C-alpha cells in the first residue's frame, strides 16, 4: 500500500513534469512568435518611413504630374507616364523623360539596401512587327532602356532589374 501511494505520487509528478514541459514549449513558441511579430512590425514601420521620405523627396515631380506614387502589394511603385518617357512604338527616351529619370535616380541613390525593378508597360495598340514581335517585346525593351539610363546616372547595376508586361498589367 505504501508502494501504491509512492507509485501514484510518482505518476502524478511525471504528469506534472510533462505538463510543465508542454507549457514551457508553448511559452517558447509564443515568445518566438511574439519576437517574429515584433520584427515584422519594425520592418513595416521602417518601410513606411522610407516610403514617406521618398514621397517627400519626389513631391515636386508628383506635383508636376511627371510621376505618380502608389503602394501595391507592400511595394512602393513609381509610375512615369509613357508619354513622358517615350514616343509611340519607340524605345528612345525623350528629353523630358531623361530629365525625369535623372531626378528619380538622384533620389533612389539615397536609398540603401534596396533593389529596384523597372517594369515596362504598353497599351494594346498593335506595333510595327518589323521592329518588335509584340507589345511584350516593346515593353521589355523600354524597361531595359530605363535601367540603362538609371545606371548612367549612378544607380548600381547590381540593384536594378527590368521586366516587361506589355498590355497585361
Structural write-up:
With 169 residues, the chain is mostly helical. It is 57% helix and 12% strand. The protein contains five helices and four strands. The strands form two sheets. Strands 1-2 form a two-stranded antiparallel ribbon. A two-stranded parallel ribbon has the order 3-4. A hairpin with a 2-residue loop joins strand 1 and strand 2.
Write a compact overview of the structure shown.
The protein is mainly alpha-helical. The protein contains 5 helices and 4 strands.
Structural class: mainly alpha
Major sheet details: 2 strands, antiparallel
Instruction: Bin the helical content.
Output: 55-70%
What shape does the CA trace take? elongated
Please give a handful of descriptors for the protein shown:
169 residues; mainly alpha; two-stranded antiparallel sheet; 4 strands; 57% helix; 12% strand
What is the secondary structure topology, with strand pairs?
Elements lengths: L1 H56 L1 H5 L4 E5 L2 E5 L2 H4 L9 H14 L7 E5 L14 H18 L7 E5 L5
Helix pairs in contact: 4-5
Amino acid at each position: 500500500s505504501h508502494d501504491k501511494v509512492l507509485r501514484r505520487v510518482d505518476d502524478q509528478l511525471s504528469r506534472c513534469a510533462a505538463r510543465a514541459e508542454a507549457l514551457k514549449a508553448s511559452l517558447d513558441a509564443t515568445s518566438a512568435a511574439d519576437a517574429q511579430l515584433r520584427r515584422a512590425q519594425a520592418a513595416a514601420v521602417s518601410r513606411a518611413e522610407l516610403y514617406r521620405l521618398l514621397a517627400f523627396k519626389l513631391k515636386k515631380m508628383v506635383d508636376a504630374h511627371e510621376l505618380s506614387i502608389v503602394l501595391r502589394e507592400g511595394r512602393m511603385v513609381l509610375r512615369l507616364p509613357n508619354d513622358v518617357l517615350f514616343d509611340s512604338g519607340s524605345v528612345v527616351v525623350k528629353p523630358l523623360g531623361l530629365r525625369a529619370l535623372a531626378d528619380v535616380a538622384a533620389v533612389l541613390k539615397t536609398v540603401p539596401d534596396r533593389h529596384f525593378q523597372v517594369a515596362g508597360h504598353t497599351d494594346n495598340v498593335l506595333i510595327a512587327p518589323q521592329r518588335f514581335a509584340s507589345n511584350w517585346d516593346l515593353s521589355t525593351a523600354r524597361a531595359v532602356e530605363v535601367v540603362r539610363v538609371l545606371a548612367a546616372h549612378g544607380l548600381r547595376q547590381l540593384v536594378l532589374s527590368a521586366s516587361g508586361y506589355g498590355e497585361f498589367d
